[in-house]
Amino acid sequence: MKYYINCRENYLGMMVLRLLVTGGAGFIGSNFIDYELAHDQNVEIVNLDALTYAGSTANNIQAAGNARYHFVHGSINNRELVDWLLKEFEIDHIVNFAAESHVDRSLKDPELFTKTNVLGTQVLLDAAYQANIQKFIQISTDEVYGTMPPGQSAKEDDPLYPSSPYAASKASADLLALAMVHTFGMPICITRSTNNFGPRQHHEKLLPMLIQNALRNRPLMLYGQGTDIRDWLYVKDNCAAIDLVLRHGQLGQTFNIGAHQEKSNNEVTALVQSELGFSDQLIHHVTERPGHDLRYSLDTTRIENQLHWKRQTDFKNGLKETIAWYRKHQR
Ligand SMILES: NC(=O)c1ccc[n+]([C@@H]2O[C@H](COP(=O)([O-])OP(=O)(O)OC[C@H]3O[C@@H](n4cnc5c(N)ncnc54)[C@H](O)[C@@H]3O)[C@@H](O)[C@H]2O)c1
């Protein structure tokens, strides 16, 4: 069964999709808002963001000038606010990006991760159920499957083995969403993507840290031997995949989104070095974080077969665009 959007008409008789994006002042959410506004002239977007250290309205400058975009400063944990928003803006679709997203921080303050990622998602799910939302997309991560041995890739229905408090909080939110599908037949899809990279990512994450420190001739810190492997997905390709899931993903299904560009942190560093030409002496290896996963890898057959999605951007081209963006937006 395929899902096709069934939206209201605007005053010109056109079908309008009224979309609540949470966490839209962050890295992926802000790129997704720009993607939607550019690709669908009939989408209206409300961005609900708490503007934590990771969110900034500077990420929404492009969207801010658009009459189809509205920003609301607030938390997904605030049920009263969420209820009001859904009613006031006649929301029919929700994409939940809002989260605490940094693994290192989750080791220091797991409670905050539980509060935002688990309880916040529960608030949104309950409110969406009560408001009869047509479709809810829960944005999740490859980290919920845990570390993958060489040669293996996780499928959507594989068991979840999260290692960090961050991954455990995301897995918990997924399970809550799936329980709403199972119990109440709620119209939900989950996306689990690999490591995103691209413009607007917070400087605490690996690639922005490498690029920004290299541009300023500062030390580059790599965990352990630099041998951890991640699959690198350009953020705009992820936005295109989420858009397909939003519009055509079968209700109740989970979709892995991966780029098949697995690289160790050492390889990523070498590729940044070949673009920016810094000295090896800037690279320092620091103690590995506890409980780290060696490798993430996803089987993406479902999204490729069902929704005909494939990544468009290879790592080198995405890296060039990312570096160009950070050059322009140096801190
Ligand atoms: N970055 C990645 O590589 C990656 C990969 C897979 C999945 N994800 C998931 O994608 C989503 C977005 O990730 P990101 O990298 O853009 O994160 P980010 O940290 O850049 O942005 C998170 C946004 O959520 C907002 N936020 C935090 N708590 C909130 C709350 N209580 N209410 C409303 N807004 C709140 C923040 O202000 C920020 O704007 C997250 O759910 C993350 O788990 C990220």
Notes on the structure:
The protein has 331 residues and is an alpha/beta fold. The chain has a single domain, classed as 3-Layer(aba) Sandwich (Rossmann fold), CATH 3.40.50. The chain contains 11 helices and 13 strands. The chain has helices at 27-39, 61-64, 79-88, 103-108, 110-130, 165-184, 206-215, 235-248, 265-276, 301-307, 315-328; strands at residues 8-9, 15-22, 43-49, 69-73, 93-96, 135-141, 188-193, 195-197, 220-223, 229-234, 254-257, 262-264, 283-286. The strands form 3 sheets. Strands 1, 2, 3, 4, 5, 6, 7 and 11 form an 8-stranded mixed β-sheet that branches. Strand 6, helix 6 and strand 7 (188-193) form a beta-alpha-beta unit. Helix 3 (79-88) runs parallel beside helix 5 (110-130), helix 7 runs parallel beside helix 9 (265-276) and helix 7 packs across helix 11 (315-328). The longest helix has 21 residues, at 110-130. The radius of gyration is 19 Å and the shape is globular. Residues 1-6 have low confidence and may be disordered. Nicotinamide-adenine-dinucleotide binds at residues 22-23, 25-29, 48-52, 54-55, 75-77, 97-99, 101, 116, 120, 139, 141, 170, 193, 195-196, 202. Nicotinamide-adenine-dinucleotide binds next to helix 1, strand 3, helix 5, strand 6 and strand 8.
